[in-house]
């Protein structure tokens, strides 16, 4: 049975950030994920997690300047020191939040950028991050993101991420498999998921094509949750979608997974 994690950066927008933990727990969620927890002190978030008996399933390293369109710095030549500082901050938050999975965002391909240099920078930064966390029990993940939602994002396909994982060669560097993004870019969800499961540490879902609830749209994500069960997937499934109306109104599909609408 899928273990659902509420993404508090996407759902529960009806309430302020620090109230979303209680809202998620009230609907029966046992785990949450956050894009970037850094807007609040780690101790405050940790207190909310403890109060509501929630597991922090995942969060991202700092992305650079989000307001200027930056979506990570790990593959950006010349930003190595910034990546190291971002890793420091994320590791500190992970310790406080007892979070075991961190998403490393690669970054954007600027016009005229040397993609080969970006690849080499990304590999070097990932190797350093993996060396630093080798004995920590942490899992580091990368996510392919479609170019319709984020045009120019460096890690765009599952094949690309798999090759990077193979090149880095660290056992705790894994794939964050977002089925919404994979449907947009590659499709063939079941067969790709079957092939990719051995390197998958975290899954996310949202309805295609409009990124609403996962039971809406052209892709059968309810079927894909059954596929994950059949394959023996044991990790969390993050709900990274935009509720069509309110969060509560759109949770009926999740009743079989212990979530109360």
Features:
alpha/beta, eight-stranded parallel barrel, 261 residues, 8 helices, TIM Barrel
Describe the structure.
With 261 residues, the chain is an alpha/beta fold. It has a single domain, classed as Divalent-metal-dependent TIM barrel enzymes (TIM Barrel). It contains 8 helices and 8 strands. Helix 2 runs parallel beside helix 3 and helix 7 packs parallel to helix 8. The chain is globular, with a radius of gyration of 17 Å. The two termini are 18 Å apart. The mean pLDDT is 97.
Write the CATH architecture name.
Alpha-Beta Barrel
- For the largest beta sheet, what order do the strands appear in spatially? 1-2-3-4-5-6-7-8
CATH domain fold name: TIM Barrel
Return the CATH class: Alpha Beta
Question: CATH-wise, what's the superfamily?
Answer: Divalent-metal-dependent TIM barrel enzymes
Concise summary:
With 261 residues, the chain is of the alpha/beta class. The protein has 8 helices and 8 strands.
Write the layout of secondary structure elements.
Layout lengths: L2 E5 L12 H7 L4 E4 L7 H10 L3 E6 L19 H18 L3 E3 L11 H19 L5 E4 L15 H11 L4 E6 H7 L3 H8 L3 E6 L15 H11 L4 E4 L22
Parallel strand pairs: 1-2, 1-8, 2-3, 3-4, 4-5, 5-6, 6-7, 7-8
